[in-house]
């Protein structure tokens, strides 16, 4: 080891250090010029030491504001803005595709093969018997369900992301297990919202497949179920619904967040506009609904068995019955092509609307 504490210093080094010392002392005593002050001010006091850019780099001015607001607001405000945005987004999306949704449910619960001609005939018969507004029959039950469902789903998704350690102010996350956590957050959000609103979903399905003479209101559905069936009837078909919502919600949120992540990485963190969010939501909806569609068929059959006269008591029994009587394509994937139209539209509108409304609410705070 070399001890340098007493090492000799050449005389020319001493002279040079004296010169540097006197120069720095004079500079330190001299006040900075106005131009220097302007440069320092424009860069801000933390420009030399702030490393937050590692988490949210190169954001545009409006995105910086939103990022800062989202990071600073309390969790209570995060929750209520999420509830409002999710409720409105869900209502807009479901009202838009309500006629196609009723048509899809009608084909799902009957053995009639799906066809475009059959879709047109069903729409024509509905308008003839019930008027144009008949296409939105059951939409009141849908709204009673989808408003709390959308509010709970989007809000709980953000909260589950926080619990799992994902970035809630930006979709950019380079952690190794980010993909798994995105899927888990979506699945848990779907389970949370579906569990809390399931009886409303069941009532909506029954109203969609019956005429006004059977159930004239959402209250009538619950009254008849309470009087003629049992408390357990309110959760009939819940298990296949839960098994279906795990991959559906998981794939929806996973695909949407992953697309946003890559978009912002590739384009320098530029925030996607509502049209891009709509497209990403549509892609997420198409992928998610294709993967979970057979279980959607089973749950609809079990939900409406009491009004159609068919027996669909268990998941396994329903799967066997559908396969035996209708086959794979005409049974488990009946109406899927219509779902590829209405599903991506609904999911795209809900994702884009939720983000747009939520961000504007938080900017106003």
TrEMBL record:
This is Mitochondrial coenzyme A transporter SLC25A42. Residues 32-50 have a biased composition (Polar residues). Keywords: Membrane, Mitochondrion, Mitochondrion inner membrane, Repeat, Transmembrane, Transmembrane helix, Transport. PROSITE patterns: SOLCAR (PS50920). Solcar repeats lie at residues 77-163, 177-262, 272-360. Belongs to the mitochondrial carrier (TC 2.A.29) family. Gene3D superfamilies: Mitochondrial carrier domain. It is a multi-pass membrane protein. GO terms for biological process: transmembrane transport. Residues 20-58 are annotated as: Disordered. Its main location: mitochondrion. Pfam families: Mito_carr. It comes from the Eukaryota. One of its GO terms (cellular component) is mitochondrial inner membrane. The chain crosses the membrane at residues 233-255, 275-295. It is found in: Mitochondrion inner membrane.
């Amino acid at each position: 080891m070399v001890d340098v504490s007493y090492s000799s210093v050449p005389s020319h080094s001493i002279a040079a250090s004296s010169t540097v010392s006197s120069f720095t002392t004079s500079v330190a005593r001299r006040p900075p010029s106005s131009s220097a002050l302007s440069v320092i001010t424009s860069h801000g006091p933390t420009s030399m030491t702030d490393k937050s850019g590692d988490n949210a780099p190169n954001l545009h001015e409006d995105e910086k504001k939103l990022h800062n607001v989202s990071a600073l607001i309390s969790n209570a405000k995060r929750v209520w803005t999420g509830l409002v945005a999710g409720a409105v987004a869900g209502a807009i999306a479901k009202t838009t595709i309500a006629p196609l949704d009723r048509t899809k449910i009608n084909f799902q619960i009957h053995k009639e093969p799906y066809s475009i001609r059959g879709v047109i005939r069903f729409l024509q018969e509905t308008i003839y018997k019930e008027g144009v507004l008949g296409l939105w029959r059951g939409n009141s039950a849908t709204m009673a369900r989808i408003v709390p469902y959308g509010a709970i789903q989007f809000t709980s998704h953000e909260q589950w992301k926080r619990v799992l350690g994902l970035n809630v102010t930006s979709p950019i996350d380079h952690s190794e297990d980010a993909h798994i956590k995105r899927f888990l957050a979506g699945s848990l959000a779907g389970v949370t919202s579906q569990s809390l609103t399931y009886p409303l979903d069941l009532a909506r399905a029954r109203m969609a497949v019956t005429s006004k003479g059977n159930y004239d209101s959402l209250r009538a559905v619950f009254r008849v179920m309470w009087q003629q069936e049992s408390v357990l009837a309110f959760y009939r078909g819940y298990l296949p619904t839960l098994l279906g919502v795990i991959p559906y919600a998981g794939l929806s949120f996973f695909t949407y967040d992953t697309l946003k992540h890559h978009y912002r990485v590739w384009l320098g963190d530029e925030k996607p506009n509502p049209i891009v969010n709509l497209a990403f939501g549509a892609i997420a909806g198409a992928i998610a609904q294709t993967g979970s569609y057979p279980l959607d068929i089973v749950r609809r059959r079990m939900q409406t068995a009491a009004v159609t006269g068919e027996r669909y008591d268990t998941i396994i029994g329903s799967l066997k019955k559908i396969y035996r009587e209708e086959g794979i394509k005409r049974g488990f994937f009946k109406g899927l092509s219509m779902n590829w139209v209405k599903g991506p539209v609904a999911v795209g509108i809900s994702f884009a609307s939720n983000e747009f409304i939520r961000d504007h609410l938080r900017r106003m705070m």
